[in-house]
Amino acid sequence: MESVFDEIVPRRDSHSYKWDSDGDGDVLPMWVADMDFRTARPVIDALERRAQHGIFGYAKVPGACFEAVEGWFARRHNFRMKQDWILFTTGVVPALSAAVKALTSPGDRVIVQSPVYNCFFSSIRNNQCETVSNDLTYRNGTYTVDFADLEAKASDPQTTLLLLCNPHNPAGRVWTGEELNRIGDICLRNRVTVVSDEIHCDLVYPGHTHLPFASLSEDFLYGSVTCVSPGKTFNLAGIQVAGIIAADEARRKAIDRALNVNEVCEISVFAVEALIAAYNRGEAWLEALKAYLYDNYICFRDYFAKHLPQFTVLPLEATYLVWVDCSPLGLPSARIAETLLEREKLRVNEGAMYGAAGEGFVRFNIACPRKLLVEGLERFRRVYGK
Hints:
Elements: H1 17-20, E1 28-29, H2 41-53, H3 63-77, E2 86-89, H4 92-103, E3 109-112, H5 119-126, E4 130-133, E5 137-139, E6 142-144, H6 147-154, E7 159-165, H7 177-189, E8 193-197, H8 218-222, E9 224-228, E10 242-245, H9 249-261, H10 269-281, H11 283-307, E11 312-313, E12 321-325, H12 333-344, E13 346-347, E14 349-350, E15 361-365, H13 370-384
Parallel strand pairs: 1-13, 3-4, 3-7, 7-8, 8-9
Antiparallel strand pairs: 2-10, 5-6, 9-10, 11-12, 12-15, 14-15
C-alpha cells in the first residue's frame, strides 16, 4: 500500500538550500538535514489560515506556545517543566550559540563528543572559546563514550561547558540512562554546565527511548540547558523556531540577554502557528513518519549488506541520518563525497566535517521517498561497488 510519504514533491526551484545549491537538475541531494516530505496536515492548515489574514507584523508569543511545548514534552518524554523556564528563538543553532555566549568567557574550553554536529564547532569558535573533543569510541560498528577521557577533560578548570548531542548526530545513538547519568555526574562534579541539543528527540526508533538529560535528576535539571525544536520532527527548519529550557534562573537570564544582544529573541507569526499546531495536533502524523523512516533505514541497511558488504552501516537508533564507515576505501571522506558528486551526481556529507574522528565516514539523509532512496543507493553502488 502506498504511503503519503512515497509522494515525490518537487523541491527544485523552491529556494531550497538542499535542492537548489548545486544548480544542476540531475544532482540527488542526500545531505542537508531536512526531509523531502510535506509536513503534517494540521500544520499546513494552521499556516494557511494565518496567511489568509494577510497582515504579518511582529509576533507576541502567546501562552498557547508555552503550553504546547510543556504539554508535548510531558506527554512524549516525561519531561515536566514550568512555562517560565522556556525561551524562544529562531533555531537550535542560535540557541546553542546564545548558551555558549552566556555561560562562558572568551578562552574557556568547551567539550564536544566528536564526530558531532558541525555547528557545535562554529558556535564555540564564534564565541572565542576553545573546542576540546572527548572523541567517542568507535568499536564493533557503534559508538560509546570514553568516560575516563571525559573526566580528564572536564576536570580542567578552564573547561566550563559540555555540548551534548542527545540523540547523537551523526552517530545515530540514543544515549541510555546509564550513559547520561555518568556524563552528568562527571560534569556536576567538575562544575561543567551541560547544554543538551535534543532537536532529534522525537525521531527515536523501536527498542530505544529518548531521555531528556534534564529530566534525570534535580541536579541535572538545574545544572543544564536544553535546546529543542519541532524543526526536525515536523520538517519545519525554514519556519525557524526553537525553545531553550533553563530551570536555573541565573543561566536563563544570561541566555535571554545573549539572545537579545544577537537579536534572535523574536519568532515570526508563522513560527507561532506552526509550533502550536505541530505539538497539539501532529502526533498521528509523527508516528506514521517514524514507521516510514525506519523502513527506509532497513531498506538502506539491507541494500548495503547485499551489494556493498565491505562498508559498515551503523545502527540507526534515532534521527534520519545514516552514518556509513567507508574506511575500507582508504580515502579521505572529502574525496569520497567529491567523487560521488562528480561521477554520479549524488551529494552526501563528508565525515570530516563532524571533526577529525569522522574521517573515513559519510552521512546519508534518508528522509525521502523510497524511490529516491533506492536511486541514491544505486548511484553509490555504481561508484564504490565491487
